[in-house]
Request: fold
Amino acid sequence: MKKTLPFVISAAVLLLNVSLSWAEVTTKAGTITLVIGKASVERGTPAEVQPVHFRDPVYLKDSITTEKESFVRVLMGRKALVTVSEMSVLTITEDLHQATINLDSGFIGLSVARKRMDDGEYIEIRTPHAVAAVRGTKVIAEVPTPDITRLTVIEGHVDVYALSAPTQVISVSTLQSVQTTLTAPSQLKTLTPQALKEKQQRLNPPQGRNSDSTPSDTVVNIQLGNATKIAEDLTQETNSKQQTGAQTNKRIFSGSLNSGMSGTPSSGGGTSGGNPGGPTIGGGSGPIIGPSLPRIDQINARRR
Reply:
């Protein structure tokens, strides 16, 4: 019996690890809403590489790679839209139910819909040199070389810290860009509107390339806007349904009163807006890719 017990414990631990790994693989982090050119996803252990297609699910720890003149968009939980430019490699993970985009190399744009974020919720961008907390913001992240990270704010502001100075939080606002490395101090500068426009052009789909999407699909057309526009459209639609339902109930109730309360009052048929559904970020608790460092909220708490 003594010889059997260690084997049973080892088997149980192995089974638990397999179950956790499977849960991470099958936890949905988003949906592919546009593919132009060639892109692939590396998934599972051992890793399997397969092409990316329109409407494919994206799972936690999936590593997405785009080739030259290629372009991918990922909708994350109807809260954020990630635009992946050519020659980029990124992975979506989660730590304590907080979504994290790990950009190893390349160029991405991230739009986060503030109205759809819970209190205190944000999305992290992690590169080999820096970490940024994004909430209700449009931001560009780029790793043009193995030793440089640039973060540019299109709208709003983000808190950034360099891995070389994790206790120093840099606030980056609209039209500002910060460059970090593992050795030199971070450099913050203000961009001209023209310089920002040139960066934004890299977030537009390449012209003349075939798209792996369905242009006539109304839902997809909405998804191709930025995440803020998606949230506003959905919110307006929900409010409109709620108002229509309230007005219908009011007319029915008024009609009953005007008729002297005779007969049986009609029942209202109003509709109430609900959660439109779609992929959600949540469920997994996989480790953050990269070194274990303080989070933005922890740093701000210490500063206060």
User: Anything to note?
Assistant: The mean pLDDT is 73. The first helix runs from residue 4 to 26.
